[in-house]
Specification:
By secondary structure, this protein is of the alpha/beta class. The protein is built from 9 helices and 7 strands. It has a 7-stranded mixed sheet, with helices on both faces. Helix 1 packs across helix 2. The two termini are about 30 Å apart.
């Protein structure tokens, strides 16, 4: 979008209602947006809704790691590449000191169109919003690779096949040469029972890749080295019978029974790993 807007303040306040057209996995952007919206609307954020609190705490981990990367490279040119950005406003939340931070938000065309309508003005600085699809060959070819790059992928890889996850991560590390990769995962048990996950049912999307220990991502590329990891139990708690877990199978009696049964598997408590790699 036009750089002529970069010195203007950005108004993210109340806007007219928009007609929304998203398809399949694109609809899942609201899964993470909802708890953040609940937090923003609460009288005393953060947060009244216990599940929203836990999911927002997870997102705060990404903000913290992003800020640490920017602070570490302060004064040197860097790139932040935000894959599957959805309607996330991280570019407004972190402090981008100086003019040496190139920020690129990426998502699929329908999502980018919606984002441009809801957030019509660019944030200040070197910013661009692009429509790219990781499933298309050569999708990285016109993105500059001349700086250390922070690659952020929140809510993306679980919707790709295991082979595609490995391929995309390998391509990213080969292309950018130096930087960090931050991603989140779901556990294997929720991939196995993805058709039962209530928040996915309306869109028809499915989780296709999961891991019970995200350190195995290091195997995708010899240059990857895990430098930080936050397990779901650190922000969701670890109580019996699924009582402290986000009710992925629904909040009714049947959903509670399913969560209780799932909680007997150690895989349940690997849900929601946030992981940071250097390369």
């Amino acid at each position: 979008m036009s750089s002529s807007q970069t010195n203007k303040s950005t108004d993210l306040g109340e806007r007219p209602k928009e007609r929304i057209h998203l398809e399949g996995v694109e609809e899942t952007l609201f899964c993470t947006l909802l708890p953040k919206a609940r937090d923003a609307a609460s009288p005393n954020p953060i947060l009244g809704d216990p599940y929203a609190q836990k999911l927002v705490d997870s997102a705060k981990t990404f903000d913290r790691w992003c800020q640490e990367f920017l602070d570490k490279h302060q004064g040197a040119p860097v790139t932040v590449l935000h894959l599957a950005c959805g309607l996330d406003s991280r570019v407004y939340r972190v402090k981008r000191r100086g003019a040496d931070v190139r920020w690129i938000d990426l998502d699929r065309p329908l999502v980018v169109d919606l984002r441009r309508r809801l957030i019509p003005q660019d944030p200040p600085g070197d910013y661009s919003l692009r429509t790219l699809d990781v499933n298309k060959s050569g999708w990285l070819s016109d993105i500059p690779a001349d700086r250390p790059t922070l690659i952020m992928a929140e809510g993306l890889f679980m919707y790709l096949t295991p082979a595609k996850v490995e391929s995309v991560i390998r391509d990213l590390v080969d292309y950018f040469k130096q930087g960090e990769l931050v991603l989140d995962t779901v556990s294997k048990i929720y991939v196995r029972y993805t058709s039962q996950v209530e928040l996915l049912q309306a869109s028809g999307a499915k989780w296709l890749w999961g891991t019970d220990d995200a350190k195995e991502v290091e195997k995708f590329h010899r240059q990857l080295r895990m430098i930080d990891q936050v397990w779901s139990t650190e922000y969701m708690g670890h109580k019996s019978l699924g009582r402290s877990l986000v009710p992925l199978f629904g909040e009714g009696t049947i959903g509670s029974i399913k969560m209780a049964l799932a909680s007997f598997s150690p895989s349940t408590y690997a849900f929601g790993q946030n992981v940071r790699f250097a390369f």
